[in-house]
Design brief:
It is a single chain. The protein is α/β, with parallel strands linked by helices. The chain has 3 domains: 123 residues, Globin-like, CATH 1.10.490.20; 77 residues, Methionine synthase domain (Methyltransferase, Methionine Synthase (B12-binding Domains), Chain A, domain 1, Orthogonal Bundle); 128 residues, Cobalamin-binding domain (Rossmann fold). It has 17 helices and 5 strands. A 5-stranded parallel beta sheet has the order 2-1-3-4-5, with helices on both faces. Strand 1, helix 12 and strand 2 form a beta-alpha-beta unit. The radius of gyration is 22 Å and the shape is globular. The model has no long low-confidence stretch (mean pLDDT 91).
Length: 354
């Protein structure tokens, strides 16, 4: 990997995204006259927007040096489009034309780099489709999860809240509720949106309801004696998906850390100021989508330039897809869930104090 070349290619794709998407759309409709008859002008518009999405994810994957991120995006897009009546063959055709256009419009090494990443997506598309059915394997608190999910999807937030409160009062651990009910339900709702089983409005409702119910558990969370350690938790600027890092912050609080949760879309300057004022030992940052990774990289560089002693943990879907991504962007570690983040933070701080 050549970081300088990757950065150049990524910036070029960002700057020329609309023009490149237009070229891809024009070429696809020339090659497939039947598309206009099948989808009309509305279909041409959607084709252009899809090409822009491809280019956006491609640019971020190249900037991160992670072909795996683009391959994963293509697999996700395959399922999402199929659920909306768009066959995998149309996606493959679109990606092949994208590869052709990139080689033509970005001659030399830049075009070959970009085309190579598209090729990883095409290879992923040629593999078996990923499973999209809900897992049937037995999991902890499965009955509680199923009733909670059903309550949310039916718009019965009050019932969901009472269900969780009774479970905790009956002795179910708050951490277990977070991991096996809240986190699992968020994943399942996201899967159902991908497969066109729930609407965006339902997804937003379920997320907002879960955040409210989490806040109702705070009397159980903020009762732990402090251990003298401090952490700051935040989403990267531009990322409004805050529930994951909020769960992480709550876990730190339950372990006795003094937490300072900044929520979504926090400017870098304010985040660094919070680290300084709180004398934080750890910064936990989430990135929900691959196009947030560049922002995380820039944030880490800014933090390093001011505060060399703060340990930076990253998490979120892109880091699960590419387990080595955290190393390349300069973090101190990555965790798949809140419990793993607690354990990793403890080890990093202990090692730093030896």
């Amino acid at each position: 990997m050549n970081p300088e070349l990757n950065s150049e290619v990524s910036q070029t794709l960002d700057a020329r995204r609309n023009a490149l998407a237009a070229a891809v759309t024009e070429r696809q409709f020339e090659a497939r006259p039947d598309l206009l008859a099948r989808y009309g002008e509305k279909g041409r518009h959607h084709c252009h927007k899809d090409a822009e999405y491809h280019l956006s994810y491609l640019a971020d994957s190249i900037a991160s040096g992670s072909p795996a991120l683009f391959a994963d995006y293509v697999g996700w897009a395959r399922v999402m489009l199929a659920a909306r009546g768009i066959p995998a063959g149309d996606l493959a055709s679109n990606l092949e034309i994208l590869r052709e256009v990139l080689r033509r419009e970005l001659p030399g090494d830049p075009g070959e780099v970009a085309a190579g990443y598209v090729e990883t997506g095409l290879e992923a598309l040629g593999q078996a489709a990923p499973p999209t059915q809900e897992s049937t394997a037995a999991e902890p608190l499965d009955g509680l999860f199923q009733i909670y999910l059903e309550s949310l999807l039916e718009g019965r937030r009050q019932d969901a809240s009472q269900l969780i409160r009774r479970a905790v009062e009956d002795g179910v651990g708050v951490k277990d509720v977070y991991l096996h009910v809240f986190q699992r339900s968020q994943y399942e709702i996201g899967r159902r949106w991908q497969t066109n089983l729930v609407s965006v409005a339902q997804e937003h409702y379920c997320t907002a309801a879960t955040q409210l119910i989490m806040s109702q558990l705070y009397p159980y969370i903020f009762s732990t004696a402090k251990n003298g350690l401090a952490m700051v938790g935040s989403c990267i600027a531009g990322d409004l998906h805050e529930i994951g890092v909020r769960m992480v912050s709550d876990f730190f609080e339950m372990e006795g850390w003094d937490t300072f949760y900044l929520g979504a879309n926090t400017p870098t300057s304010d985040l660094i100021r919070a680290l300084e004022e709180r004398e934080a030992d750890v910064l936990a940052v989430s990135a929900t989508m691959s196009f947030h990774v560049r922002g995380v990289t820039e944030l880490i560089a800014a933090v390093r330039s001011r505060l060399s002693g703060v340990k930076v943990l990253v998490g979120g879907y892109p880091f699960n897809v590419d387990p080595d991504l955290w190393r390349r962007i300069g973090a101190d570690g990555s965790a798949r869930d809140a419990q793993e983040a607690i354990e990793l933070a403890g080890r990093l701080v202990a090692e730093a104090r030896r």
